[in-house]
Fold this protein.
Amino acid sequence: MSQTDSRRDVTSVVDRETESFIKKDVDLYLSTIHPDMVWVWPPSTTSHDPIDWVMPLGRFDRERWGDYFKSFFAKYELIYNDRNIKRIDITAQNDGAFAVVDVDTRWKSSSGDELHWLGRIGKTYTLKNNRWMMIAQFGPVELTL
């Protein structure tokens, strides 16, 4: 597999994640996650210091994470989902990747509650059994350029 092929495949994983939100497809979303992922994220888009970050889902567990996203998708409707890949780098060994994605995603519940994911996300991917999977994600954090 060439680095060009790997870059295309990582782009495809980011696109599958986006599609899973549009379709509210939990299984499609979970198919992008590496089984060893531990998801750490900032409690707000302005929490740039990792000292404040949280781990509400723990290490990947298909059933627990699936239940979380089923509940999320049942509660919220996707209003819009704009994602723009800014960068994809592949390791020299062609076994790891890093993607930077700018997101502007808005969800709204039937009770009127809104969630707005806005900012830049760093996504780390690893190649396992010839398949790219997300093993870490950081953000979204607000851009401070």
Notes: The longest helix spans residues 3-23. The first strand starts at residue 76 and ends at 90.
